[in-house]
Amino acid sequence: MKSKVAVVILNWNGKKFLADFLPSLINSIPSYSCIYVADNKSSDNSVDYVKSTFPSINIIINDDNYGFAGGYNVALNQIEAEYFVLLNSDIEVANNWIEPIINFMDSNPNVGACQPKILSYFEKDKFEYAGASGGYIDKLGYPFCRGRIFQSLETDNNQYNEPIEIFWATGACLFVRAELYKKLGGLDADFFAHMEEIDFCWRLANKGHKIYCIPESKIYHVGGGTLPKSNSRKTYLNFRNNLFLLYKNIPNNRFYSVFFSRLVLDKIAAIKFFIDGDIKDGLAVFKAYFSFIKSISSLRKKRKVINPQFFKNVYNGSIVKEHYIGKINNFNELKNNWLK
After folding, report:
1. The Cα angle at residue 115 between residues 88 and 153, in degrees rounded to 5
2. Taking CA 211 as the corner, what is the angle to CA 245 and CA 238, rounded to the nearest 5 degrees?
3. pLDDT 10s digits, 180-239
4. Alpha carbon distance 202, 289 (integer Å)
5. Which of 176, 181, 198, 257 is deepest in the core (most CB within 10 A)?
6. Are residues 45 and 77 in contact, defined by beta-carbon separation less than 8 angstroms?
């Protein structure tokens, strides 16, 4: 039976998170919602645990580990709902976290995707890295958030409590119209994990749909649940996927200038890794470029389909310069310098 809202948790060896957070999730959802756990071929007995402990939860078993993007695509193709909520397993939800966003999207049919306010599970008065109070991007393709610039996380003093149109919504808790998700082909599975939600939101905006943050809804994110922040695999995916993201979506009139700038800045980042003794991270940057070059042919085909454009909510400056040279750590300190 088709539900109004399908909350879907993609699981890979996350039994501990499921044990910690499923009880509060079950108690929080309205009657028009249902919960799915989509398992990405775990080896930690996650599926048997959910079946025996939470029999009301629907289970989808993927036949392989398809990563975040591919795993969700395989699972969501099997679910009928009006709205999908892609929810990380390492999240504690607050009461009344679904209703404000669904009410907003019901009242605003031009809004294709939304996110709640994302706070840290460990420091509940601070924003969390993966989304904070809404995602943005600068003209060179560096993502940042309302409440988080690079590693600088702001304290939540209700300064970002108003609903606002954003550039991208976090994949940690992504509300999206199911029809649009399937129409756009879902997340790009070639990303595997990291930044696929930015690519999806960019494509969504390209079709005329808006993305919003609704801070009345809030969740608490552990973060780094699958790959820790110091992991060189994560460094590789972040650099490679950012190149994928830009090649697919940067408009023609900015394409070469953006890629030349990124080549210089990414080399500087790699050198800094080496100087700091993070040899594996430095090598991961170069590995990311080799992988990107090998993928250009397939990326070019995707780019032709997308017809790349820039939209408002792109910061018309360098967040790298603002943060590392201008010492700006808070979103509200940024100049009013946005592409219209």
Report:
1. 80
2. 25
3. 999 999 999 999 989 999 999 999 998 999 999 999 999 999 986 444 555 899 999 999
4. 22
5. 176
6. no
